[in-house]
Amino acid sequence: MADHRQIDFGHNIDSFEREILDDINDKLEPYIQMSMEERYYLNGIVRKAKPKKILEIGTALGGSAALLLNATRNIDGAKVLSLDYSTQCYIMPEKQTGWIVPELFPELAKRWEFHGGGCVCQYLEGGGGGFDLLLLDTVHSNPGEFLNILEALPYLKDGAIVVLHDTSQWTTWGKELQCTNQILLSTLKGKRILFDDAACPVIPCIGGIVLDKIDHDMLWGLFTNIALPWVNSLPYIDYVTLARYFDQHYDRDLVDIFKRSAIWHRQRDLLIAEVRMQNQTPLLERQHGLFSAMIQFIRRIKSKCRCILTTRKL
Length: 314
Fold this sequence. Notes:
Elements: H1 18-22, H2 25-28, H3 36-49, E1 53-57, H4 63-71, E2 79-84, H5 100-104, H6 106-109, E3 112-116, H7 121-124, E4 131-136, H8 144-152, E5 156-165, H9 169-172, H10 180-187, E6 190-193, E7 206-211, H11 216-225, H12 236-249, H13 252-277, H14 283-313
Parallel strand pairs: 1-2, 1-4, 2-3, 4-5
Antiparallel strand pairs: 5-7, 6-7
Helix pairs in contact: 3-4, 11-13, 12-13, 13-14
């Protein structure tokens, strides 16, 4: 297999070997949340790079998994591992996540493995790693993919390809809070795989990059992304799982950023809940309650951060 950093992907990778995808496009159409150009882009990258081990995080119906399996159908030994936070498909709750692969593409399913339920890092540990390509497409809002990429990085090969979907949700679909994947794509360092998509008014809604060597400077950017405002909360069990996992794979100063960010956002959620409980009280009393809650919030954050630093010194 060629070094991905030496491959010339050009600026029209979406035109490369389209006929491979065309073989399944009609059957795939109702079940994949990618435009035709985005599908051709992903198909072209896979056909050009010829990865043997692919990791997909975020599976939904299984459309992109089927695309990846089809694009590697004549690559000897190629396999796809799909991971998802949920075992039930959020689009069709009566179905299992990724259901279309075994039901509609059984000839491809023998090279496919799926695991779901909770943080995806628990399915990576002890699994061998060495993935050539990562397709990351989960919630598109913070902290979402900011955490997913850090789960995946320890198991990617040097010079692996990372493809992110839904990178321009705010300009393409007006979803202003779904900017996570573009921020992440901009933070990663490496050789970018570019193309033009006329359907997108500013930038394409999918992007890829061949990663440079992962160093502390790149990791610092990835971890500090976690400090940006969160749209989604992090269950405590997930915090514990991720904290333990990150402790095993990353320097302590980086993991501390994750822990502090998680604590800050948890305490913020508690503050909001406290204030909402007071929304039926008189205005002056409400203002006093908000002020008191803010003071308590700041004290809790300082206390939690002191605990982290004390533990670090020990």
